[in-house]
Amino acid sequence: MMWIVSSLVVWAAGSWVNYRLANGAFSATRLVKLAVPFLFGVTIIAVWEGLVRGLSVPHVILPPPSAIAVRFAASLDILWVDFVQTFIKGAMSGYIIGCGAAFVIAVLIDRSPFLQRGLLPVGNFIAALPIVGTAPILVMWFGFDWQSKAAVVVAMVFFPMLVNTVQGLAATDKMQRDLMATYSASYWQTLIKLRLPAAMPAVFNGLKIATTLALIGAIVAEFFGSPIKGMGFRISTEVGKLGLDMVWAEITVAALAGSAFYGAVALIEKGVTFWHPSQRG
Length: 281
Description:
Elements (H helix, E strand, L loop, with lengths): L1 H21 L7 H25 L10 H10 L1 H35 L2 H15 L3 H12 L3 H24 L4 H9 L4 H36 L8 H10 L3 H29 L9
Helix pairs in contact: 1-2, 3-11, 4-7, 4-9, 4-11, 5-7, 6-7, 7-9, 9-11, 10-11
């Protein structure tokens, strides 16, 4: 009972502090903007700990954060090996190949109305295919190591990146293109000096979407066959052994890696598209 009461007190106190910070005189400062989500996360973890202990929830259903932290600290070597296998080798390689290929093909499609009308509908169809259906096929084609996971990631990120880049290249209006024509600019000069800079917000939108898809694709692909390492492999095997604390430790690594990856892309976007209204402070 004491744990439950403590959880309610922590939730009430955390909510009150966050409300005061978010609506106070310094709510627009960088420190407060960082403090609010941090305090909210700490409040959630504290309430989670109190409710799990107060309600005597079995660890095989939901372990408390303290047990997850202990398992995390005791398994750093395993978590690092899994991180390298899944994120560095599988997700990152597939992300770079898929997004890079999509960008190049989007520029080629931009010069061909036939490809715009023919390839983009096919791309939307392929992007809608469920990963649980395509991942086993790609694992059979490319083997059980990280190459098959990279192939799954390429298939997942390619078309969202392609569609966003094509839409971005069409963002300039006719007056801007006519102005470049009056300067006798060639297609490539217009592309590099006008259309690509104008397309950057849409390009980075595709890159940010792909950060999430890449990690999800690599983890799910490992469920269908992998060597004895990787986040997906560890999650599936630990669930079979009822080691939910290790499963949550892997989920924590995936969440931290995904958030850092997204944040890095967003930071690059802020530097590249500083002129865009969405980046103005």
